[in-house]
């Protein structure tokens, strides 16, 4: 262990043998692909929309009845499935929609927040999943089922004296908790100075010598936590406090020769990091160009201020946010610019290695599909497809989309990972309601 590393926890690693096994499987797929006629290649690159929808609807129906395995995870299953369906541009059956709203209502604690199932203790992760599910469903019934006042009280209870958040009563403090709290507060328009206070100091203390962000101070940088930390810092207008150059340097080295992303140094690639790491690029790209110069933002939309705060200057929440942060919160595009990662290669990994022809996505070849990987592979695919986009109103150029253009998914809001259209509906709905 060198001296830089000794101040942090020892890094998790995989053996060279495990690494080669994965590369072997992936390269075999790419070899087959390279050696078949173009017509067959086109078929291999197709997104199996119908099979995915069938797989997702099956999950939703199971969820509607009782789903005993993963019992404390049902709001998550709701979110992974509903968000995947929304990304594919499909809607769900009226009865299933009502069942989902009713089910989530039963998960809502009388004192605020959502538990993993009816009557379970409220938890920040399932609160985030439930809120994102209801926003994805959209409409008055879903959105007004969220008790924002009680949710605000729950968030205040989860706030530690250090400024960071706990996952649940007497639970662990980490960057995930900070992100989920800030994300739901922001999207529900209940974010205030009390919730923001000192949370940035905690996230800052989790950025490691490698440049990525860890779950807790002294732990190892990881893609999941890096997304959480960066997104939370942007939402509180404190992203410029991070070492963004170091962050970019760390994340660019996480894309492997297999074309997918790994979550941390010396670990295996996995389809779910297509979103966790891919969206970090989308966020960084909107913050700065590679050499630190500001990127050109598209024309202002909505109610963003026109005077931009000078670079490096910090702002304190909603009142005096920079133009840039305001645009980012609204999901406004970032000018045409080459992505800072290999977007086509990542799409290749997602479609050829993570996609199952029978519907659903997996971590890597040889692993089983599941709803978590389906959600984050599709979210990552969407991030890739829009990574060159001029703005949200102009669809991506065909060169940005691997495979047939019919592979194009709905764009996501990179700070919250909900489909942009649904984000705008929620933003409008909650901005007309008073805070707390
Ligand atoms: C919004 C929200 C709740 C975000 C969660 C973010 C997230 C995915 C965190 C990852 C946690 C973690 C250290 C996984 C490592 O698993 P592993 O050791 O099995 O995987 P690895 O080998 O790929 O690191
Ligand atoms: Zn994974």
Automatic annotation (TrEMBL):
Keywords: Metal-binding, Prenyltransferase, Repeat, Transferase, Zinc. Its cofactor is Zn(2+). Binds 1 zinc ion per subunit. SUPFAM superfamilies: Terpenoid cyclases/Protein prenyltransferases. CDD domains: FTase. It is an enzyme of class 2 (transferase). Residues 302-326 are annotated as: Disordered. This is Protein farnesyltransferase subunit beta. Belongs to the protein prenyltransferase subunit beta family. Residues 47-418 form the Prenyltransferase alpha-alpha toroid domain. Residues 306-320 have a biased composition (Polar residues). Its EC number is 2.5.1.58. Catalyzes the transfer of a farnesyl moiety from farnesyl diphosphate to a cysteine at the fourth position from the C-terminus of several proteins. The beta subunit is responsible for peptide-binding. The keyword Transferase applies. InterPro entries: FTB, PGGT1B-like, Prenyltrans, Terpenoid_cyclase/PrenylTrfase. Signal peptide: none annotated. It comes from the Eukaryota. Heterodimer of FTA and FTB. It catalyses: L-cysteinyl-[protein] + (2E,6E)-farnesyl diphosphate = S-(2E,6E)-farnesyl-L-cysteinyl-[protein] + diphosphate. It comes from Hevea brasiliensis.
